[in-house]
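Sequence, please.
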């Protein structure tokens, strides 16, 4: 094994060692490096050999075939051939169940980790280990080409990949025998590949429109003096060229009276028509008409498609991407005319209708699509790898987190610690306390999202800070710090400051996430902003009321002999009224009842305080100032 030497002080890798850039794509994957002879990024391989189809075939002996050899099995053995596995990374069976029939292989749930799994030949595989097989093939290809052992790489992901998907990608790299130095957003890599920002005199604001086989994202980047700053990002982790193919398949089924549900049950027939739809999509990029015949179910089918019909079929899919673009512009607080360049990335941007739609949205006469859209991300990843290797010190990449991170507080409220669009890496923290006397532990639940109530956000995980010394409610000081690294992975420190009790963890993402929670979070937050704020204010008022009730009951119990029966009865009645109101939604009534309870208890609370002070001062001599 080759050893990589790292300069601990500077955090760089020995210059003579190669760090590769990998584009782990939905449809195809590539590997690239910066050639030391000319300083240029290059994809490994010749012509078509550069591309490794992201397809895995598993035979009866559980042996793997990757790439072109596996792709050839899609028609003959579709139930043993896995494609578009990137779409399954970091997802649960619930997330993909609606689309399960469109896969040629069998998806099954994993009750243990809530992760979708794939069953082949009676054995269950998860998307991480299958992605690792693709990465292993890329690693072997690089080692054969370069004649040395490769152990470190940079892997790209869509900018809108959530924490679970990023962690799943990193896990796949580890399984493949790679130390993943950085998870880089694909749009950032693409801009590097185009050379934008490599000249320190560049001062531009660019939009990177990245439409691949299975994912879409739009990123607004500001580049100045060699610094790449992400102003905003948006996207959809379940929209891409695969959806173009499916739209064509559905159209042909409708025209020929084919029951698509029946078709999806016949894996061989479905793969035949799906691959033909992919061919039609590619043909219509530079031809007005497509026509072909295939045979299945003992029949011959003549499939035709005009470019005008194709455009109508994909228009709703393209519009989903344009909606994300509008949201990204709004988040960046920019207008269309403030965008200097549009960079097109991903094989699906070869479709002329996509290019024209993007031009119209951004009101531009042209877009930057001169590089091979299949290679551009891998080339950019190689440049980032070169930066991490210490060979380029004049470039700085500043990405952002696409969704806010915070914890649950009393009343089910979301308390944001790291706001969305914060530059990463970033550290942030806040102090909290206990709500009950003698509380020995504190459960810390971590969420991601923009809604006011945690029930509407996405739970990342939780842990418990134990062994807090027994103290009255409100006395412990618990410092919670969030540390989000450059890969978007979250670590948390929780410390009780008075006792020094501490726990540090890295939140392991829950792989069970719904598309709605992730992909529509920002839209839902905007749509429900007023309603969410009203719910938050109600929850805060109820929480304050419940804390007051707790303190009043404690005061009554501890001072039975010091209060009159009338005081006790009046206080209990006020408490009972407030408790009943807390079950409802009338915030004004709760506030009024809370004020009444405070008014009733204030005189004897002051009396008890005076008595306590008197006892404390008994026998003490006070000197005049």
């Amino acid at each position: 094994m080759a050893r990589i030497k790292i300069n601990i002080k500077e955090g760089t890798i020995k210059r003579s060692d190669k760090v590769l850039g990998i584009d782990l794509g939905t449809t195809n994957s590539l590997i690239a490096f910066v050639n030391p002879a000319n300083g240029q990024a290059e994809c490994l391989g010749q012509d078509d050999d550069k591309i490794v189809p992201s397809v895995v075939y598993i035979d009866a002996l559980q042996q793997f075939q990757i790439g072109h050899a596996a792709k050839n099995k899609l028609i003959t053995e579709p139930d043993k051939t896995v494609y578009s596995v990137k779409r399954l990374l970091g997802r649960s069976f619930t997330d993909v169940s609606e689309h399960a029939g469109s896969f040629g292989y069998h998806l099954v749930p994993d009750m243990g980790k809530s992760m979708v799994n794939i069953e082949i030949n009676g054995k269950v595989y998860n998307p991480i280990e299958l992605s690792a097989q693709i990465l292993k093939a890329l690693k072997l290809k690089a080692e054969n080409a370069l004649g040395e052992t490769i152990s470190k790489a940079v892997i790209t992901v869509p900018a809108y990949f959530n924490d679970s998907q990023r962690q799943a990608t990193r896990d796949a790299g580890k399984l493949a025998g790679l130390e993943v130095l950085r998870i880089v957003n694909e749009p950032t890599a693409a801009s590097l590949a185009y050379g934008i920002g490599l000249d320190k005199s560049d001062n531009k604001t660019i939009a990177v429109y990245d439409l691949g086989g299975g994912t879409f994202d739009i990123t607004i980047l500001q580049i100045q003096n060699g610094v790449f700053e992400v102003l905003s990002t948006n996207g959809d982790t379940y929209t891409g060229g695969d959806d173009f193919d499916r739209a064509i398949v559905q159209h042909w089924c409708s025209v020929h009276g084919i029951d698509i549900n029946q078709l999806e049950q016949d894996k061989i027939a479905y793969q035949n028509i799906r691959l033909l739809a992919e061919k039609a999509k590619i043909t219509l990029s530079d031809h007005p008409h497509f026509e072909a015949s295939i045979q299945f179910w003992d029949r011959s089918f003549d499939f035709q498609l005009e470019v005008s019909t194709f455009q109508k079929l994909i228009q709703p899919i393209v519009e989903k991407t344009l909606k994300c673009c509008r949201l990204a512009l709004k988040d960046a607080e920019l207008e269309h005319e403030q965008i200097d360049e549009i960079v097109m990335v991903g094989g699906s941007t070869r479709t002329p209708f996509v290019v024209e739609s993007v031009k119209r949205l951004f009101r531009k006469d042209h877009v930057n699509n001169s590089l091979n859209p299949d290679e551009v991300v891998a080339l950019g990843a190689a440049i980032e790898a070169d930066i991490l290797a210490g060979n380029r010190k004049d470039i700085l990449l500043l990405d952002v987190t696409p969704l806010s991170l915070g914890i649950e507080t009393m009343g089910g409220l979301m308390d944001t610690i790291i706001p969305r669009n914060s530059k990463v890496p970033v550290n942030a923290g806040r102090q909290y306390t206990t709500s009950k006397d003698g509380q020995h532990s504190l459960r810390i639940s971590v969420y991601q999202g923009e809604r006011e109530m945690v029930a509407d956000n996405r739970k990342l995980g939780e842990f418990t800070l134990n062994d807090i010394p027994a103290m009255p409610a409100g006395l412990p000081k618990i410092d919670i710090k969030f540390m989000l690294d450059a890969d978007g992975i979250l670590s948390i420190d929780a410390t009780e400051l008075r006792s020094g009790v501490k726990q540090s963890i890295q939140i392991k993402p829950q792989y069970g996430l719904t598309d709605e929670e992730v992909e529509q979070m920002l839209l839902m937050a905007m749509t429900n902003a007023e309603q969410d704020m009203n719910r938050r204010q109600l929850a805060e008022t109820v929480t304050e009321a419940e804390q007051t009730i707790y303190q009043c009951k404690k005061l009554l119990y501890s001072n039975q002999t010091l209060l009159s029966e009338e005081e006790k009865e009046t206080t209990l009645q006020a408490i009972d009224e407030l408790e009943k109101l807390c079950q409802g939604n009338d915030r004004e009534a709760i506030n009024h009842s809370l004020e009444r309870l405070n008014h009733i208890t204030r005189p004897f609370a002051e009396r008890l305080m005076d008595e306590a002070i008197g006892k404390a001062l008994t026998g003490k001599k006070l000197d005049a100032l």
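DSSP finds 17 helices and 30 strands in the chain.
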